[in-house]
Amino acid sequence: MRKWILPEYIEDILPAEAEAIEELRRTLLDHFRAQGYRLVQPPLVEHLDSLLTGTGHDLELQTFKVVDPLSGRLLGIRADITPQVARIDAHLLNEAGVTRLCYAGSVLRTVVAGLASTREVLQIGAELYGDAEVGADCEVLSLLLSSLGKAGVRGLHVDLGHVGVYRALANGAHIAGHNSDSELFAAMRTKDVPGVAELTCKLPSAWRDAFAALPTLYGPAESVLAAARERLPDTPSIDSALSALSTLAQTAAPHVEALHIDLADLRGYHYQTGASFSVFTAGESNAIGRGERYDGIGKAFGRARPATGFTLDLRQLAGVAGRQR
User: Fold this and answer.
1) Which residues, listed in sequence order, are joined to residue 291 by a DSSP beta bridge?
2) CA within 20 to 30 Å of 272's CA: 59, 131, 149, 300, which one?
3) Looking at the domain that runs over 156-281, which CATH code has it been given?
4) Are 152 and 325 in contact (CB under 8 A)?
């Protein structure tokens, strides 16, 4: 084999693209700093059990694993920087009140994510710790949208979701944590309406009807919220989730061309605790930015904290901005 051939889905970045990516990285980090977010630089490798803590458990299959010749312990090459920043907030900084942090660096994944063409993603993002209120989610969403504006990306379309709605239904129907919950979760994610109906047919009518409605509650934010309040049980948890979505929709509306809500979007269900948001633009099949709330992420590091944040792929973003220019 030729020595200059790289592994599959691993690529060199040549001068013109590299310069565009570096300029974008500097622009975004300066923007984060101007909003009060401080830069941290976690290491590329860590002990595996640290990387796979909290949100990291969902990343186990995407994480390269190696043995440390010095200690004999298993190390992981990071597939996401978010768990590392949570460790820094909980264990190293240990600050009272709200902490705002940002980062930029490469992550390496064992498999290609979606339609991406590389397993080495140039990740940049921001995290806000210590504030459980919806205002923190609004701040992070606003920072994400303004960052895309700084990058020169136009025609933004935001999708909002909230795992609290499904969790409230699962708890109310007393199926949370059961095998039927896992099967129903899978059917809900694929919007398998007949499958949802079959899996909930033995539940009381109020819960059965609510689960049946959930995969259909997708579309323009205002109409989905109105339909959800009409068709879902009137419980404090559901009301709180819908109110949070309404507040986030009002925050995003002036800055986007389209605003949708999807109450069956359960991406990250096993670690998300609240609202989530994905940003799209015309001509790009994948989301160009994602964020969510994941309270308690620092618990395994000795300090459970409310947390919300977002990530961007610098290479993808530079490509989108260049095409739109």
Assistant:
1) 277, 310
2) 149
3) 3.30.930.10
4) yes
Residue 276 burial (CB count, 10 A): 25
Which structure tokens are listed for 240? 């709180």
Residues 6+ apart with CB under 8 A from 95: 89, 130
Write out the DSSP string of 50-75: HHTSGGGGGGGGG-EEEE-TTT--EE
Joined tokens for residue 235 = 């419980």
| Residue 50: both structure tokens together | 């640290």
**Superfamily classification of domain 1-155+296-325:** Bira Bifunctional Protein; Domain 2 (3.30.930.10)
Q: Cα(277)–Cα(254) distance, rounded to whole angstroms?
A: 16
Token pair, residue 250, equals 């009002």
pLDDT at 270: 65
CA distance 272 to 11: 32
Q: Where in the chain is the domain with CATH 3.30.930.10?
A: 1-155+296-325, 156-281
Give the mean pLDDT of 148-167: 95
> How far does the chain reach from its first CA to its final CA, in angstroms?
40
Count of residues in the chain: 325
Please compute the mean of the pLDDT values over residues 220-239 and round it to a whole number. Answer: 96
| Overall pTM > 0.85 | yes
Selection from 248, 282, 284, 264 nearest residue 134 by Cα: 248
Helices then strands, counting H and E runs in the chain, come out as 11, 12
Q: In what order do the strands lie in the sheet with 275-281?
A: 38-39, 99-108, 120-129, 307-313, 289-293, 275-281, 156-162, 258-262, 218-220
